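Bug #77: duplicate submission created two jobs. Keeping one. Sequence:
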Amino acid sequence: MKDAKLDSVASAVIAILAQCLIAAAIFIGLGFTETALITRALTALTPFLTFPIAFLVRSILEPRRIDSALRDEINLLRSPPHPSRFDDGLYQHGALVGIVTNPREITNDQIEFDAIEESDTLKRREAFFFRDKLLFLNVVVGYAGTQISTTITAEGPRSITRRAVMTGVRCHIIGTASTVARPHD
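Kept job's structure:
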């Protein structure tokens, strides 16, 4: 029933031809007795009732399904799920757009990071969330496409590759999660 639709001329012609062939096969298959002519004719017309019956059933069931789906969507919009977030992550429109190192508040309205890594998707002219704070980028001292650093440990040398790194970052705190409506933070 899901595919019971006549959405183009070709599908309508094919549906009618198929119904005609089935009706002819039923009419011929029931035999040629004169007494059963009306029964043969009514039985042969049965395939032509498939679309009206399918659409009748669909018109009863489809509104219920649509209503249920819309109610689920409304409930989801009223109470969106709060996925767990990376504590040192920056988020724009609900997506992780950077990872900070060494965050520190320097004043009530300023926060500073030694670096923001993986910042290639961060839109610099838009606000973003860090933990419960809404921030706006003020100062970026440096930017490196890729930074590779090597440290010597007891196990031997270890290389760390960081991409899209902004260094010496200072941001202005423009709000908190509780003071800002954030439908798509």
